[in-house]
Amino acid sequence: MMQINTATPPSPYWPAGWSVDAFSVVDRMMPEFHPSDTVTKYPLRYLRYWFIRHLLEAHARKLGRPIDVLEVGVDRGQMLAFMDPSPERKIPSIASRWHAVDVKADEAQLLALGYSGYTSFNVDGSAKPPLERQYDAMIFLHLLEHLHAPEACLAAFLPFLKDDGIMTGGSPTMPKLFADLGYEKRLAKNAGNFGHVSVISPERIEQFADTHGLKVAFLSGSFLARNNGKAIENSSAWLRLNVAFGSLFPSLGSEVYFSLSR
């Protein structure tokens, strides 16, 4: 039977009211990824996984069945770890499959973590991904800012999204005006190997959605001030305060998270 976090509210428009129970996974599943953050109960760095987990759970609830998930740009598998799969199965009960796409990843490690499969593919461009099926949900988490052509990447995967599917993701953000005034060019010029080269503003996400006939079902900033490993990150009220700020001022919320639907 599919089990979904019933604390997820029916409306996604005020994430500061979402359940923070998912953070219970941090000290059990996540220490190998960011050890300095896992000494606190609610590390704000992990909001990136928290937003996506809630959006996926809400979509599985909407469809009334386990969803087929595609994660593009998986790094070491942190997103799946935060989903807290049960000992009996390696992927969460809301998912029927969880496929990974990355230009270079440790396939054996990903399969051991519970990924259903892995496809090696350079996502920075408009080439057609070598996929064989469509998916209920796609994740582009802290990937788009590393791409010179983020819109082309999203568009290339769009044919593999089911008609009732969602594209979710998140990236560092700032107001579009700052990028237009030259910040993005300076960012790309000074970027190291796989550094940040694109500014993903809320306006840029909305423009992509409008261009491709998608609806912005959810869009929110993340936090105002992150204090990695500090005692204040033991406070759920501090987390909620930061998320509330991000919801009210998406382009000023340090990171932006979204869900796009057809």
From TrEMBL:
Upper taxonomic lineage: Bacteria, Pseudomonadati, Pseudomonadota, Alphaproteobacteria, Hyphomicrobiales
Xref: InterPro entries: SAM-dependent_MTases_sf
One Pfam family, short name: Methyltransf_23
Protein name: Methyltransferase type 12
Top-level taxon of origin: Bacteria
